[in-house]
Each structure stands twice: as C-alpha cells, then as structure tokens.
Amino acid sequence: MLWATAGVVALGFLIALEIAARRYCGVPGPITNQAQEVIFAPKPGPLYGGMALMMVVLTWRQRFIAAGVAIGIDIVFVLVRWAVDAKVPDGHFFGNGALWVMLGYAIIAITRRTGQERVLLLKGVGLGLLLVAGRKTGDTWLLVTAKTRPTVLDQYVATADHALATPSWLAGRLLAATGPIGTHLLHLVYAQLAVAAVVVALYQLRNVAVERRFPSHHLVRTFLVIGLLGPAIYMIFPVVGPVFAYGPGASGTGGVHWAAANLWPNTPPPINPPHPMTYDGITPRNCMPSLHTAWATAIFIHSRKAPRALRCAGAFWLIATLSATLGFGYHYGVDLVAGVVFALTIEAALRSHDRGWDRAGIQLVTYGTTVFAALLVAYRYLPMEMARHPLVFGPLLILAMASVVHGYVRTTKLWEPKAAPMRQPEPQPEPA
Question: CA-CA distance, 200 to 140, in Å (whole number)?
C-alpha cells in the first residue's frame, strides 16, 4: 500500500509538472521528454546509472545479460542513426538500450514474477527509473523557477554573505590562480556528483540480490527527497548566484546587462540596503539552499561506514564540491550553510521514520527545521545587520550549523545498535 500510494503521488506530481512546463514555459515536461528517449538519442549517463541501480536486484548472470542487451540495442540505434544521417545533440550518442532494459524488466516483473520476487524486481526498476525521472523533473523545475520568479533576492543574500567575509569572491580568485588544472578538476567533480552518489549507493545495495530485500535506509532515498523538497525553497527564496547577479554570467545565460554590477570575483559588493532585482527568464533560481552542498553532505554521511577508500572519496567529493560551488560563483557562502542544515535535517527525518519516531528524532528534526527557517528569515530581513556586524553574525552562522551537525552525530550514535558484552566464562573448580 505504501509503495502504491507513493507511485500515485509521484505520477500526479509528474503530470502537474508536465502541465506547468507547457503552460508557463511552452516546452514539453518530464513525461514527454522521458517518453521521447525510447527512440530519440538521450544523455547516456543517467540512464546507465539508473540501470546499474536496477541491477542490484539481479543475479550476476542476469546482470551480464542485461548489460549485453542494453549495449546491443544501443549499437543498433547508433548504426541506424548513422545510416540515416540523423543529427543528435553533443554527448547524446547512446543510452536507449538502458531504458529499454529497465522497461523490459518492468514487463517481466508484471508478467513472469509473483509474490515477493515481483515486488523486489519492481522496486529495482522503480529505483532506476526514479533516478532518471529525478533528473528530468529537476531540469523542468529549474526552468519553471526562471519563468515564474522574474525577481531575485541576490542583493539580500550577497549583503548577508558579508558576515562570512564573502567567501565566493575569495574562492573565485583562488580558483583563477590555480589555472586550468584546478578549474577542470572542479568542473569534473561538480558535474559528476550523481556518479559519486551511484557508486556509494551501489556499495550500500551490494547485498540486495543475496538477501532479496533492500536495506531500510540508503543514499538514493536521501538524494531523491533532497531533490524533491529543495526546488520548493527555490520558489520561496529565488536566487541566481554571484556569477550571474554580480558578474558576466555563465553557460550562455545571464550577463552584465542583468547583473546588479560586474564585480565578481575581484570586488566584493558594497554594503548598501538590498532590493529585489529583475533577472532574465532563463537562468534557474537555484541557489538557496545549495543542493549540491546538500547532496555532497549526504554522500559524505553515507560513505562513513564504507571501506577506507570510499570514505576518503566521500570526504574529497564534499570538499571539492564546496570549493566548486564557491569558486565558480554558483553560490554564496550562506547558501552552503543552509545546504548543510537542510541535508542533515532530511537525513534525520528519514532515519527517524525508518526506526520509528522517538523523542530524540523528533527533537533533532524540529531543531534542524527551526534553524533552517531562522537562516532564511535572517538572510531576508536582517542582511544589513549581518553585514555591519560580521564578528557577531559570522560566528553565529557557523555555530548554528555546527549545532545541527553536533545534534545529528550525537543522536545517530544513540541509534546505533549496542554490541552485546562478551560473556565471561564461569570459573571451573580445579581438579583435585
């Protein structure tokens, strides 16, 4: 019943987003875009990542067959496109095979499986398709934010960011000083965040095929919930980011003519009373909170019980993601603070739901939600006070974030199963 309800809710959300995309943006929504990828050339990464997640429920023999079938279908599609000289976007050469395999296993689950085996296979297919649908939904939602929120609050956030000494401006200059090597490395980390998530998720789900069940909590759930709730905050608090609001823009959008001033990254913005500012209808309002920070935080948390190499990779991805979000001018420092609090609160809520809500879980989620709301209120209504008194508000921001981190660590330690004490052998009488 729970899975059926979740499926109905997800379908309703996708239909509503499809209608919104066509009404406000004049473009097809996520359902249409996904259906087109059955035939038209897709972006391969999300589809093969989704198929990899689906295959956690399969045996090794079934995995090899599924991968071979997906590659074979893609070869046929590539040859047909080459024969008819079909034009495809850059980077969209293959990927249909992975989608066909996932849809095929959905049909197999319904027609050839029964009972728990059918449920397990459908869960695997659903997990893979959710990853793909999440990407499509996110792209559509970002376009909706640009079309429905013509004004942005960047001046408020940039002013509040003075409490943290405007770290995006400093990081931008430091990244420029590293030259192309540092820039290319951080671009790779920033763009391939989903790959890191899939690697950690595959480790967590490695025993599903043997145990024939999913673990009670894993990274994919946190990732999807962050991606579902985060865009709602974008609508409440629309922000485009320093490189757009105070710089030349990036990725072909924005530009100096939309910016408040061309200052990033060399000159921090002056401390003046902020005002809402009009921006273009293309650039996503996707800064507050920083979901890249939230996702990287979730990867870091879920990699803590992995082998040492994966733990180091999780720490590296978090540090590199924070550096990239600031260094490329995509986020302000206060966005990152909000992103960490946002991720920990969602993670705590999901874990509390899985184990049953107790007093510690309710207190942690309530406290995290309160801190997150207080941050947004402060950024919106106290930016001048934050900028004029950085020695007060800067430590307060870090302390607020640290208190949520401390509460999460302390509470989750209480939830860890206690190891049973070793039973001491009873003394035996010595032989006479």
Answer: 26
Span 103-152, pLDDT tens digits: 999 999 999 988 888 989 998 998 888 888 887 888 888 888 888 899 99
Place of tokens 């980077």: 91
Round to whole Å and give the CA distance between 350 and 346. 6
Q: What is the pTM of this model?
A: 0.88
Structure confidence by residue, pLDDT tens digits, 318-331:
999 999 999 999 99
Bridge partners (DSSP) listed for residue 278: 151
Q: CA-CA distance, 380 to 237, in Å (whole number)?
A: 9
| Three-state DSSP string of 47-91 | HHHHHHHHHHHCCHHHHHHHHHHHHHHHHHHHHHHHHCCCCCCCC
